Structure formats: C-alpha cells, structure tokens
C-alpha cells in the first residue's frame, strides 16, 4: 500500500527541507527556545496568518547545524527500507506521530516493549483523571455549604477504595485498547519488544529470550518517554514510599501522606488524597509551593487548593532520606534546609509519594551506535527535534519527541512534536511553537496556562523593549460559573498593548483546562487580541471568561482589516 | 449580551481593584474638633474574612493621599485587593508593617489631615498599641456582605508572618530524644484555629501521633490553658443584658449538640428498684465506693451481655462493636460539661473503679484530663438524681451508641405481683440510643438485664 514511490519522493524532499532550512536557522536569534519558530509559514501556506516577519523567529542552539551526514547516507546505495518511519515507543507521542504518518501515506511501524499507551495512558494522565473525577465528585458531595447553597441535600458521601481503583484501571485499559485498535485499523505495525538503534536507519527489537529482529526505516523517531524521577536517598518500596506509578493503583488511602514535590503531579494527587480523607504534607525544595505557575495564579491556587484543606507544607527543604515503613515504624523522612544543607526536621508519616518530576527513559536505546550522548538522560535535539550527536552535528533521519527530549514533558506536546516530525519528513517545513502548547493541572478547580508567565513576559519585554499589559477577570463575573456556584477563579491575560499579541494566558477556575484552548489556538495561529475580541461566545458559558479577558485588554493596534469576516455574509 | 447580564464584579485591566474604604460621615461632624487624624482600618474584603495580611504599602509615611488613591494591598482569605483612601490627607503612621496580619476592623494606619499633624499622629500610633485613640471612626465599606459588629476597639496586634507560618507547620527541630511533637496536618491546622498548644495534647493516632480529634478534645478539656493570659472568664456574677461568646469548651459542646441532630435517636425508659443497691452502697461506702462507680459497674456488666448497646455507627453503613466497655460519666464543671471515662468498667473491680473515678473528677476540676480520659467512652451515664430530678432525657453524644439518663432513687408505693402494697426505693432510667445500630428490643433487653443486676447487686462486688 505505502508505495515505494512515495519513499523516493520522500528522500529528496527531506533533503530539500534541511538544506533550505539552514539559512533560516542562520538568521535566528541564538538560544531562544521560547520562540522555536512558528507553524509552516516559512514554506508557503499563509492562509490565516498575517505573516509579519517579526514573529518568524527560528532558533537553534547557538549556531545552525548542517546535516553533514545526510549526504553520505543518501549517497549510500539506495537500499529498500522495511518502513518509511519507525517509532520507538507507543505512548501518546508515538501514537500521534503514527496516526499522522499514516495520513501522510508513510509505511509506519511502532515498537513497544511494554504496553501501548505509555505513561500517559497507563501510569499518568489517564488513570489520574479517573481518580480526579472521583475526587471532584467527592469534594462536591462533601461540601455541605456548596450543596446547601444549591438547595440539595445529600447524606454522608462515602467511597469504596477498590471501586475507585477499578475505575482508574478500567479507564486505562479502555484507552489503551482504543489506542491499539486505532493504530491497527490504520495499518500501523505494532512490533513488540525493546527497540534499540543499531546504526543509522536501523533498529533491532525483540523480547528477552527471543532472537532480535532488525528492521530498517527511512526515518526513526525516538519516543521512549520517561519514568518517575526518584532522588537518591529515597527508598521506594511501592507500598508506603511510592511514585505516581503505584499511587494510581490506589492500593491504599493512607491517613497521612507526604508528597515530595508540589508541581502538577503532586498537586493533583493532593487533590485526590484529601478528597478521599487523607491528610497531606507537601515537601517542596523551592521557597514557594507550586513553582512554575504564574505567581499570582499560584498564590490564588494556594488559597483555594492548599490552605483550606487538610494540607500543610515544608518549603525550602530537601528530603534527603526517606525510609519506608517497616517493623511497626512509620515512614521516616529526613529534611534538610535547601540552602544551608543543615538538618531541619524529621517527619513520621504513613506514606510518602515521590512527585519530584520525571526522568527520561533512554537507557538501552543504543544511542552510542549513532554517536549520541544523552544530557542528564535527555536526548539532545534541535528545535526541529532532530537528534544532535556528540560533535554537535545532526544525526540524519533520527528524531526524538516527547519526554525523552525534555523540551516540554506533556503528552500532548509529545504528540504535537510527533506530528511536526512527520510533517518535516514528508517535505513540509514545520517547526512547533512550544509557546502555543497549553498545560493543565486537573485539581478542583483546575489550573491551565499557555505561553509566558507574567515575570517571564516582563523579562522578555525588558530585553526586547516592549510594554506588557495584564488583564484579569474573575469567574465571579461569569453567569455560568455562578449558576454552578463555582465563582472562585481568575483568568489572566498577558499581552502586548502595542500590537495585541497574546503572550500568555493563565486560568484558575471551573473547567480551566477546557477553556485554555481558545487562547492557545490564538497563539498558535497568531491571532491578535484586537481581532479575537470580536469573536462571539455563546451565553451563558464559561468561555465568556475569556471573552471578558480579551475585551478588557487595552490594545492600541486596530483590528486587522483583512479579518476572516470582512465581507458581509447573508444569513 | 454577556455584559448586560453581568454581575457586579467587573474585570479591570490593572488589578481586582475595588474601592474599599468609606467613612461614616455623620460622626465626623460631631467630633470635628478632633477629626484631624483618622484611622485606616483593615477592611473586610469578603464575607468570610476575619483577618487580613498587609501585602504591601503603596504609600509610605508622610506621603500625600488623595481621595480614591490606593494606599495598601491587603491579602484576604480570597484574594489580594487594593484598599483606597476615602479621605484626603497624609499617611501619618503605618501601624501594621508589610507582612503583618491584623484583624478586620482594627486600625492599620493613621491618616492626618495636614502635614503638621503627622507628628501628632505618630505619637498616637505608638500609644494606640495599648489604648485606642479617640479618633473619627472610619469604618471600611464591606465589599460583599456587611459584617456589622466588627469590634473596632481592638488595637492592631502586628503579628509577623513568620510566626504564623511556623505555627502552621509546627516545626520541631530535633527529632532525637522523642521530645518533638508529631501531629497530622489537619491536627496542626485545628490547633491553630482552636488555639490549642500541641505540646499539651496527648496523641491517640498511630504511634502516638496527634490527630484532629485529639485537638478537638483538648480544646474542650483545657479552655483555660488555651488562653493562659486571661483569667477564668466564668465569674460568679453574670451581667444581665449582655451577650457572652462561648468559651472554647462551650463552643465544642455546641458543635457536638448540633451534630447530634444528625443521629436518629429514640428513648426507652425503665423503673428499677434500688433497695438492694442502696443496702450494698451503705455497706461498702466506707471503703470509698461511690454510687457513680456502682452504677457504672452495673451498666458495664449489663453491656457485657448486650454488646450491641455498646456499639456505635461511624459511617452510616456499619456497626462498630467496641472491644472494651468504657463508661463515660457526664460531669458538670465550671461553665461546661465533660465526660471522664471509666475504662474497662466491666473488668475493673468496684474499689479500683471508685478510686479511679475520684481521680478523674479531681483531674476534671483541675482541667488536667488527658484526651484518652474523656474521649474514649463507649456508653455514657448522666445522673441528675442528686438534684432530686426523677426523670430526664439525654442527648446522645456523637460517636457513641447510647446514653443513659439516671434519675433520683425515691421511695415509692409499689403494688407487687402477689397483691401487696409496699414501699420501695425506685429510680427511673431513660436510655437514648442511635436507632441505626441499636433497636428497641436491644434496649429493652439491656434494661431488663440492668434492672436484674441492680436489684440483685451481688455481682457488683465480685
């Protein structure tokens, strides 16, 4: 089906792209990963974009890289490849890439040594959303005040731990089979075993105890993802000292659980555990909880998600040693001051969840065979996700997407990166704008964001000499939120008053995770505030929060005359 | 459309700014002579706000303020808000520094009308830590709901943030020596709220950890220890026409009583002849045996035969059969009520039980009861017989299955089965029980057993 002829056009195609790309890279600003270029505009297709050259920044790590090896490999006798594209790792990133590759007519295989779906589906976003759905409902039912305000009467809400755990597990299985079926239906070969790169365009895979198979492919994408990161000194026993992998199975609901790390993972689990009756102690190495969120949002979130709940916290401390519970002793956590390194405290708790982030899963990938050395485990890539070798040269036909490259460790970012790579290998110049990738934390209420935080925007503004505007609106002003009796929340828009560019949007409130996309799409498509503010939102909906936000921004630039609806349309 | 249907809260580009300070103009007239220095109060920014933290002063001392200008950013339990001045003048003295916390309605700064008065205001601000100066009351306007009775008299105690934070996390540096306090996060929060010193609380959680219920119990037991500076507020004379807030213990009683309304209770009464018991009491009184101990013992022995009456319903779905029979006995103490517990009353002999009871009562009066001595009861006795009350009805304490109200034993004319009329001492008992776990027949059978034991009390002394 996937014809050889397509491969043939694929080769020069990709070459062409690389070469023509180099000048573009050369004009880029050095080390500016924030603006990893945009969309497709460099190579035509200017449909909706009001292309202004100012926004087309390509960047590279320091200097542009030539694809020095590509000529040789292309020059080698044109052998036939088993596949157009092989993806190592069938997580969300690999899946997204595979689907898009099929759409583009590539003969595609995906290698998976564990379970299809990867972290997200089996040990991450998916089962955690099941638990969070439960915690959200529990929270609602337990909130007497809230229920009373709605005129509802509910007698004591309770839960069955195993039932909750089963819901999470069933959801993961269901999504996993959906994913598997969708790939099978499209004709993606799912090869089972651990994939290892043995040379350029060559991968071996196989199960332990079975002979390895070697397959070749025009292009290879590494999408091996990540595993929970456990700092040294912490002994994980899977029962009382656990990572998210174990926690998602919900084998127990401890009375008191310490959560090491107050990022997305830690926050979401604190939401789950406190809803199910646990008390939580956060341990955060930085001076403030929820690092990485816009400070204002973080502050508000702390007021809503931490302070009124059965949660306390230690900030500015490292957990240097965590010993699981045994022989009748509790879990013991030794804390030192993050700055002075002096011993600070010892905690005795029933369980500890290690949520200190995730480490790339790149061991045994055979990167040495293509002269690539990982950096803290991450596969070095350029802004087009091409793998960089030890000499700083690009490895031809080898890409790395998702958590394994560490650019943005989010499932949907991996998928977007995968699609971007497929676009590139099929001859479309494509650079993913990571600043347009939204992120969400599914607490109750949710937190979501896209683009820069206010301090980041101000820093950039100072460097580049533009003004920053901030507009805010409260969920208290939204009819739908009030109807739900969920008026707690804030949406914040960071923008350039001079040209109406959206720099960042941060939302904390009911269904924030679903609301962010209007902003992220606007950033991705380069839509300016002065244009989007005329878009109509159904009333009454939560989306009006964003409508308010756009309308309250003070933009000096006039609406563009060539907007999509400049011609009257009869209805 | 959205705009038309908008609620009062309007978004603004710069911040969630609301005009927050307004004055009560009427008063400024009458006090015009002194009306040169005004206080700026901590405004109530939300209906639930009780105190506010000064995030930052946007003006410094000596700065001129015009009406409507933002002076200070206050952090409430909900959000940060700018507070604007309602009057023109000079910011004379800042009484609560940045990072400081002040109760709603307390003065956080002084506003002088003219530059000359700044010095005067400064002296005032210094003295105001002891007494509130007579200045024009400038009550901030409430944003959402009015909180009318804000005690404006309280001077602003400047509580540094750092202190608040360490209180919340109860950091105890050295773990060695077992001297540190292990308390669950919620226990710590509650301790702060109820002003309970965790150092005085004995934990009943896993490995002796202090958990929420220990703190709640301690708040009931040691209301005085909670506020050591204050003398015992319960004075003999009650001022009529005043509203006196609950003490911590009274507050806890109030909560418990309201909570008890969620339990479906019912009552069963029984009349028990006590001649034999009275005789026994007379005989062993000299050995220090008290009637309370005898009743507790009799009740415990009856409970042995009816474990369901010693059970309780924790979650609405199950019986919790308690492993030991702990008889709690309600005792009135100054301005409150506490229930010291006779643990394992079925197993401990009557003499030990009596000694234990005396010890508990002494401790209760001295407010030194430990949590396990008053919150581990599985069945409660309440006796008003000493007042001559012949019958009453008790409220079931949450977390237990039954409580027995005991009336006075009184001589009564009784017709007996054999057709005679005689005089017997009789007391009425009335049990209130949680019908989710204890049914009418259970109580009836229990009372029958209890009557048998009391009427033939030889088992009470082993």
From TrEMBL, chain B:
This protein's UniProt keywords: Acyltransferase, Lipoyl, Pyruvate, Transferase, Transit peptide
EC number(s) per entry: 2.3.1.-
Gene3D superfamilies tied to this protein: 2.40.50.100, Chloramphenicol acetyltransferase-like domain, E3-binding domain
Protein's UniProt name: Dihydrolipoamide acetyltransferase component of pyruvate dehydrogenase complex
GO molecular-function term, one example from the UniProt record: dihydrolipoyllysine-residue acetyltransferase activity
Species in which this protein is naturally found: Gossypium arboreum
Enzyme class per UniProt: transferase
Biological processes, Gene Ontology terms: pyruvate decarboxylation to acetyl-CoA
Cofactors (names): (R)-lipoate
Presence of the UniProt keyword Heme in the record: no
Cellular component terms (Gene Ontology): chloroplast envelope; chloroplast thylakoid; pyruvate dehydrogenase complex
């Amino acid at each position: 089906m996937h014809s050889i002829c397509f491969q043939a056009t694929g080769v020069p195609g990709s070459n062409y792209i690389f070469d023509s790309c180099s000048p573009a890279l050369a004009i880029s600003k050095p080390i500016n990963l924030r603006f990893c270029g945009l969309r497709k505009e460099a190579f035509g297709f200017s449909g909706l974009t009001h292309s202004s050259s100012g926004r087309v920044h390509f960047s590279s790590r320091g200097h542009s890289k030539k694809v020095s090896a590509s000529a040789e490999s292309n020059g080698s006798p044109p052998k036939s490849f088993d596949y157009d594209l092989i993806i190592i790792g069938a997580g969300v990133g690999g899946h997204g890439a595979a689907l898009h590759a099929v759409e583009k007519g590539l003969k595609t295989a995906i290698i998976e040594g564990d379970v299809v779906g990867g972290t997200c589906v089996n040990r991450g976003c998916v089962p955690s959303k099941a638990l969070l759905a439960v915690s959200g409902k529990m929270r609602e039912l337990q909130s007497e005040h809230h229920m009373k305000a709605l005129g509802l009467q509910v007698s004591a809400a309770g839960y069955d731990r195993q039932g909750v755990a089963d819901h999470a597990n069933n959801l993961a299985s269901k999504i996993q089979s959906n994913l598997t079926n969708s790939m099978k239906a499209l004709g993606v070969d799912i090869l089972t075993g651990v994939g290892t790169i043995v040379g350029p365009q060559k991968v071996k895979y196989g199960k332990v105890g079975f002979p390895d198979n070697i397959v070749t492919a025009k292009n290879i994408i590494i999408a091996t993802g990540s595993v929970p990161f456990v700092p040294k000194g912490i002994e994980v026993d899977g029962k009382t000292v656990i990572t998210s992998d174990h926690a998602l199975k919900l084998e127990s609901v401890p009375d008191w659980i310490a959560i090491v790390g107050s990022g997305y993972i830690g926050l979401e689990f604190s939401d789950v555990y406190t809803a199910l009756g646990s008390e939580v102690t956060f341990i955060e190495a930085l001076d403030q909880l929820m690092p990485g969120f816009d400070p204002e949002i973080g502050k508000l979130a702390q007021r809503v998600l931490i302070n009124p709940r059965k949660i306390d916290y230690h900030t500015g401390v490292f957990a240097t040693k965590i010993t699981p519970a045994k022989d009748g002793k509790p879990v013991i956590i030794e804390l030192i001051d993050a700055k002075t390194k002096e011993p600070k405290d010892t905690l005795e708790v029933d369980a500890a969840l290690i949520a200190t982030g995730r480490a790339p899963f790149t061991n045994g990938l055979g990167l040495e065979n293509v002269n690539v050395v990982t950096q803290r485990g991450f596969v070095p890539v350029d802004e087009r996700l091409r793998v960089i070798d030890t000499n700083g040269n690009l490895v031809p036909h080898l890409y790395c997407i998702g958590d394994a490259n560490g650019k943005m460790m989010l499932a949907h970012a991996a998928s977007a990166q995968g699609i971007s790579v497929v676009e590139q290998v099929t001859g479309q110049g494509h650079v993913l704008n990571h600043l347009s990738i939204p992120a969400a934390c599914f607490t109750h209420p949710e937190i979501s964001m896209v683009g820069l935080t206010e301090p980041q925007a101000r820093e950039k503004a100072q460097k580049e000499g533009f003004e920053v505007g901030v507009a805010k609106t409260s969920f208290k002003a939204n009819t739908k939120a009030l109807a739900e009796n969920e008026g707690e929340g804030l949406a914040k828009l960071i923008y350039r008053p001079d040209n109406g560019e959206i720099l960042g949007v941060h939302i904390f409130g009911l269904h924030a995770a679903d609301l962010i996309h209007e902003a992220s799409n606007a950033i991705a498509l380069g839509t300016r505030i002065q244009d989007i503010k005329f878009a109509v939102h159904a009333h009454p909906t939560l989306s009006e929060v964003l409508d308010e936000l756009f309308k309250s921004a003070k933009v000096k630039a006039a609406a563009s005359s060539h907007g999509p609806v400049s011609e009257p349309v009869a209805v | 459309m959205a705009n038309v249907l908008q609620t009062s809260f309007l978004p603004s580009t710069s911040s969630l700014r609301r005009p927050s300070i307004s004055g009560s103009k009427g008063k400024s007239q009458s006090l015009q002579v002194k009306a040169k220095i005004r206080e700026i109060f901590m405004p109530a920014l939300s209906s639930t706000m009780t105190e506010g933290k000064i995030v930052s002063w946007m003006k410094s001392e000596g700065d001129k303020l015009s009406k409507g200008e933002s002076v200070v950013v206050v952090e409430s339990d909900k959000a940060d808000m700018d507070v604007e001045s309602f009057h023109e003048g000079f910011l004379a003295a800042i009484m609560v520094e940045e990072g400081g916390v002040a109760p709603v309605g307390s003065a956080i700064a002084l506003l002088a009308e003219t530059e000359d008065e700044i010095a005067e205001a400064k002296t005032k601000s210094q003295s105001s830590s002891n007494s509130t100066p007579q200045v024009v009351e400038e009550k901030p306007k409430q944003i959402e709901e009015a909180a009318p009775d804000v005690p404006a008299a309280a001077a602003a105690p400047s509580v540094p943030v750092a202190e608040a934070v360490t209180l919340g996390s109860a950091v105890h540096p050295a773990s060695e020596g077992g001297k540190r306090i292990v308390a669950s996060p919620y226990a710590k929060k509650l301790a702060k709220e109820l002003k309970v010193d965790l150092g005085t609380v004995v934990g009943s959680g896993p490995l002796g950890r202090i958990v929420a219920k220990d703190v709640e119990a301690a708040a009931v037991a040691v209301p005085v220890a909670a506020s050591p500076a204050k003398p015992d507020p319960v004075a003999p004379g009650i001022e009529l026409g005043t509203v006196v807030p609950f003490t911590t213990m009274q507050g806890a009683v109030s909560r418990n009583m309201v909570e008890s309304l969620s339990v479906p209770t019912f009552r069963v009464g029984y009349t028990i002849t006590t001649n034999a018991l009275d005789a026994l009491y007379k005989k062993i009184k000299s050995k220090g045996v008290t009637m309370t101990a005898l009743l507790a013992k009799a009740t415990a022995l009856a409970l042995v035969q009816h474990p369901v009456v010693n059970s309780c319903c924790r979650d609405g779905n199950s019986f919790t059969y308690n492993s030991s029979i702990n008889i709690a006995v309600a005792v009135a103490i100054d301005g409150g009520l506490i229930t010291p517990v006779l643990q394992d009353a079925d197993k401990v002999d009557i003499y030990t039980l009596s000694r234990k009871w005396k010890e508990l009562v002494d401790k209760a009066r001295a407010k030194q009861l430990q949590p396990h001595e008053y919150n581990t009861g599985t069945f409660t006795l309440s006796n008003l017989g000493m007042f001559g009350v012949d019958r009453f009805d008790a409220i079931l304490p949450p977390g237990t299955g039954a409580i027995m109200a005991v009336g006075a034993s009184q001589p009564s004319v009784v017709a007996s089965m054999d057709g005679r009329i005689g005089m017997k001492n009789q007391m009425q008992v009335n049990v209130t029980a949680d019908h989710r776990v204890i049914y009418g027949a259970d109580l009836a059978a229990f009372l029958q057993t209890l009557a048998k034991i009391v009427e033939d009390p030889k088992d009470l002394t082993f």
